[in-house]
Design goal:
200 residues; Tetracycline Repressor, domain 2; elongated; Arc Repressor Mutant, subunit A; 0% strand; homodimer; mainly alpha; DNA-binding
Chain lengths: 200, 200
DNA sequence: CAGATTCAGTACCGAGCGGTACAGAAAAAG
DNA sequence: CTTTTTCTGTACCGCTCGGTACTGAATCTG
């Protein structure tokens, strides 16, 4: 199928990347179309032609965020031991929450927590996406139990949920301006709750 | 000073209590004046006469929330040992986050996380109020160190921050619909990071 | 009683929202 | 060249927002 007419004059991926930052800083409801299009450097009309509407733009933005800004999570899952998986994840998470070239905090956490009215499905969508990460971690921990890397009576879902609780709590702290070193100190304490193979 | 004119025809405290629930469920920006006055059972005009404006109403609502819904935190601080203080706080917190006669989650956490634009000072105000609680806990833990109740090399601020991280992470989970038992399981794991006098 | 204050209710303000319509220019295919 | 598609830009849609003005009735003090 051939292409007819004037081609798109902007880089949709680059524009989406800029939209991510706006949603990250201001949340779904707090980011107005004027904010978004201004940051994306394109016109209102072009945005609707390229992405459909605000909600679809948000979905695309969250997908890009998960792919680029959460890459450390997938890398952490590849660590050889459960302890290393968790420690790598939480430390990288604390650093990602406080990168000085990015908004502080986590897009998924602060993007839709307050959306309780008409946009309740946004909050549910974000919660489900976080739950998917928690599930992936639980499966990795279940494998660790099979490998004798965690005590056999460990509940992998409960442990994964605890890790995500620390991650999200740190996200709330980061959004409040707590510095990186303080987040890492919380990670260090949190790691004391993780069983190690040696202690078994 | 005497009172002249028609007296107020509604219970301001009861109306404020209803406003708390709306802010709790929908956040600061998500709660419209129509939502608020409808729940409070009073007129728009009466609200402005009694509370000033939306932001002052929110301040009053948060104060009432801290006084009534966070009473368990002050009770927890009165526990005899640091371990008991933390465990009592986190368990009561998990239950408060999932009371079926109240909105799920924490007003302070979900009330203003997404407020990044004009209402940024709301988020900062909420963060400061959470920090005050963290500071109170840190002082209680410092006393515990003096009493030999925690190892002398313990950093009370870091430990208090960790406890608040767990509390806020659980608040995020609760807002996502995670049930009480799951929150309590995270508390149980989190407690493994808390030193006890016996283990010293 | 008169005067003061608050009541409930409604209509309205300017502003911003998400989204659309329409303009005229630009760049591709045939 | 014509046609088609997308471009940029502006104006506008209906709606909701927080907040105000005004009305007439109600209820207090003095």
């Amino acid at each position: 199928m051939a292409h007819r007419g004037r081609p798109r004059g902007f880089d949709a991926d680059a524009a989406l990347k800029n939209a991510v930052e706006v949603f990250w800083r201001q949340g779904y409801e707090g980011a107005s179309l004027s904010d978004l299009t201004a940051a994306m450097g394109i016109n209102r009309t072009s945005m609707y032609a390229a992405f459909g509407n605000k909600e679809e733009l948000f979905h695309r933005a969250l997908a890009l965020y998960a792919e680029e800004e959460m890459a450390y999570a997938r890398e952490a899952l590849a660590q050889p031991t459960a302890y290393a998986v968790i420690e790598t994840f939480l430390r990288a998470n604390a650093e990602a929450l406080t990168r000085d070239d990015r908004p502080v905090g986590c897009l998924s956490v602060q993007g839709g927590l307050a959306a309780g009215g008409d946009n309740g499905h946004i909050a549910r969508f974000l919660a489900d996406s976080r739950l998917a990460g928690e599930q992936a971690l639980a499966e990795r921990l279940a494998r660790a139990i099979e490998e004798g890397d965690l005590p056999p009576d460990t509940d992998p879902h409960a442990l994964a949920r605890y890790v995500m609780v620390v991650s999200e709590g740190n996200a709330v702290h980061a959004a409040a301006g707590v510095p990186r070193e303080a987040l890492l100190a919380s990670v260090e304490i949190a790691m004391r709750a993780i069983p190690t193979r040696q202690l078994k």
